């Protein structure tokens, strides 16, 4: 990306408000120009012939047209103009900084929200193919860097504008200066280029290394209990150390190149300015005070150029994040579900869910997980999927929810193909108790209602139906008790009951329970089963269970093996078939 592209990138991010910021900077620079011009005129105040050049001539002609009573008044008028112009310039500069900080904060907020929404809008397979630590890094850290890169870019522009303003008088009054400056600065430009390419390289490396680091930290925190209980954390800590060594090397190199660019050129540029001054005084016979003022302008311009270089360095350090952001945004755009699944029909639930010769394969795998599968789930019936671990049960319900889509075959609900449906509407109509209980680090109440206050009234009744009320009442703050990350403060079975209560409270026409009661004792499981049975005939209920006692009341049982349906039928009929299902039931001594 070149600077023009970055400019249009920020222009679109700020919805053109960046132009207002540029307007402020130009105003500030103009004020500096006025102040500088009047200051040059003050130098000639006592000389016999005022107005040595067009600029000072203009200032003095304006001054004489004011007919001030004495020279003292004239001096005061000049100095006051100078002060007022500087004050206005400084005030506009302060306001423009505040304005750009506001834009920066808005960029951070809007990009982050947009990214999270896009992530939800992308197909599920995009998410599962990603390292969560790295996604976290991009959504928090890299987007923060994108907004900081805006700040650096704004700094580059404001410093460049001010530097140009300071260069105006030396350039206009002594036009030979641009030639000298250009010739002498040429070698520095090459050095700047080299330094900038190094900084850019290390900036991208920094982003990559940070991504890996976030990945490891995420693993440590996600599996904290196991790592602590088995003291296996030492192994992952040594992996962390190795990763940190890589990152600190990159950070050291970034600092080194940063220091070279901010301090390395100062002596060279000062020498250049002195050479120019000597040339002007010795060869062009200019007055020394005139030359000194021009030199002061040049020095101020130089300071701004150094600030540009500093801002450019910070820009390069954070601009790696823009590439990372753009890459993820285009990946998310490619994976956008609304593009892949443009259907907009409202789903209806009066007819069955049908699979016809459905074959599904994960993108990361060669072998399909579900093979040529055909089935029918009649509305308001209870259907069970059973089978060994890895048979494809959870994948199957992920297809039913419209999280995954098959490569071949068709899926329909009430005769409508999933491809024609508005899948997010379909998902709103499905209560899904996932195999891993989902607990947010919040109160019991918020975990059940998901922050929706309209559900608060029914909370006790759904908790009762999920057999969760008794243990919740015993918690220190009852429904206001914090459950900790992933529900670390409660037991596995309690987590399951809270997730069941949450899905029951949504009152959806379809309910899916994937091993929803696997961590419960048989008595609690039976109670929950009874309350699920209350919806028998009223809702479509899909149950996945290893413990076959939970599926006795199902209208239909499908037995899966290696992604295929090997047996199907009502529970008793299937048992009497004397097949694989019977073996499974007998091995659990349930007959
Ligand atoms: N994200 C994924 N990427 C690639 N393969 C996957 C992914 N998730 C699951 N699989 C594979 O798909 C197959 C079916 O997995 P699935 O989770 O559907 O099994 P399951 O029947 O629910 O098993 P369990 O009873 O252990 O929960 C397994 O071989 C699994 O390794
Ligand atoms: Mg499963």
- Mean pLDDT across all residues, rounded? 88
- The name CATH uses for the topology of the domain at 3-339 is ABC transporter transmembrane region fold
* Strand order across the largest sheet: 6-7-8-3-9-10
Q: CATH class of the domain at 3-339, please?
A: Mainly Alpha
DSSP helical segment count: 21
Oligomeric state, counting identical vs distinct chains: single chain
Distance between termini? 70 Å
Biggest β-sheet description: 6 strands, mixed
Could you say which structural class the secondary elements and strand pairing correspond to? alpha/beta
Which regions have little confidence, pLDDT < 50, spanning 5+ residues?
Answer: none
Bound molecules: adenosine-5'-triphosphate, magnesium ion
The rounded Rg comes to: 36 Å
Proper CATH architecture of the domain at 3-339: Up-down Bundle
CATH level-4 homologous superfamily of the domain at 3-339:
ABC transporter type 1, transmembrane domain
Global geometry? elongated
What fraction, in percent, of the residue positions are helical?
55-70%
Beta-strand content estimate: 5-15%
Number of strands: 10
Written description of the protein model:
The chain has 591 residues and is α/β, with parallel strands linked by helices. It has a domain at 3-339: ABC transporter type 1, transmembrane domain (ABC transporter transmembrane region fold). It is built from 21 helices and ten strands. It has helices spanning 3-13, 17-43, 54-65, 71-121, 124-128, 132-173, 176-222, 224-229, 233-263, 266-283, 288-334, 337-340, 393-400, 423-428, 444-449, 459-465, 469-474, 492-505, 522-533, 571-576, 580-587; strands spanning 353-360, 370-377, 382-387, 408-413, 416-417, 430-433, 510-514, 540-544, 556-561, 564-569. The strands form two sheets. The protein has a six-stranded mixed beta sheet with strand order 6-7-8-3-9-10, sandwiched between helices. The model has no long low-confidence stretch (mean pLDDT 88). Magnesium ion binds next to helix 13.
